Amino acid sequence: MFLCIDNGNSRTKCAVYNVQGEIIATGIFTGDSFSDLYKWIEKQNVIHAIISTTGNKMIDTSLIKLSGKLIDLSHETPLPVQIIYSTPSTLGRDRIAAACGAHALHPDQNFLVIDAGTCMTIDLLLATGVYLGGNIAPGLQMRLRAMHEQTARLPFVEAGWPELDFGDSTLHALQNGACLGMVLEIEGYLNLARKAYGDVSVVISGGDSAFLAGKLESRIFVEPELVTQGLFQILSFNV
């Protein structure tokens, strides 16, 4: 069995895959302590593991006992895709994994790879398996919180889809600015990618992926396990 750990900014997501790439078990952990994570891992029959860390909380790899290989993903880890990025050491590990996952699940296609989590990352991956890079923007909750916390009078509102494209109230104006703004941002980047590379599809993952995907006009592949699937591909490639 292969253990894939996506240690992000707000949560740690784990998935156990078999050799065929099928998910056997999953676990999601929050908080500052990894004690529940270590206990969960002990119950899984895993041989090899890979960890991708994008947040500040570090997992103690010495507490993960395996008979096989344990990879702490870095810019030096051999990958099944080619990374063209001027500062590979600063490239988010989740972005690397998402690109590998997209290429494995949908080979021979150009993709805009979107991770709609704490931040929204939008990356361009060619059908040849070449990762060109991308952009980072505030995620949905970050946008909603920032408009409230960084102003004197704007309230905090929940995400939503007003019926009007131009809000007729402060509530609707804030929701459109954050939610519709993200959709238009994605579609704008997609248009740029298609002008440069022709046929480009979209694959989206992350906590807000389902919420956003329904409003995107282009054909969308929603892949909730895109990052862990990419980690599985990297781990398999190295094992």
UniProtKB/TrEMBL annotation:
- What Gene3D superfamilies is this protein classified in? 3.30.420.40
Query: Catalytic center at which residues?
Result: D94 (proton acceptor)
In which pathway does this enzyme or protein participate? Answer: Cofactor biosynthesis; coenzyme A biosynthesis; CoA from (R)-pantothenate: step 1/5
Tell me the InterPro entries matching this sequence: ATPase_NBD, Type_III_PanK
Identify the EC number(s): 2.7.1.33
Molecular function (GO) terms for this protein are: ATP binding; metal ion binding; pantothenate kinase activity
Where does the record say this protein resides? Cytoplasm
Q: Which UniProt keywords apply?
A: ATP-binding, Coenzyme A biosynthesis, Cytoplasm, Kinase, Metal-binding, Nucleotide-binding, Potassium, Transferase
The record lists ATP as bound by D6, N7, G8, N9, S10, R11, T12, K13, T118
Q: How does it assemble?
A: Homodimer.
Supply the NCBIfam families for this chain: baf
Q: What does this protein do?
A: Catalyzes the phosphorylation of pantothenate (Pan), the first step in CoA biosynthesis.
Q: What is this protein called?
A: Type III pantothenate kinase
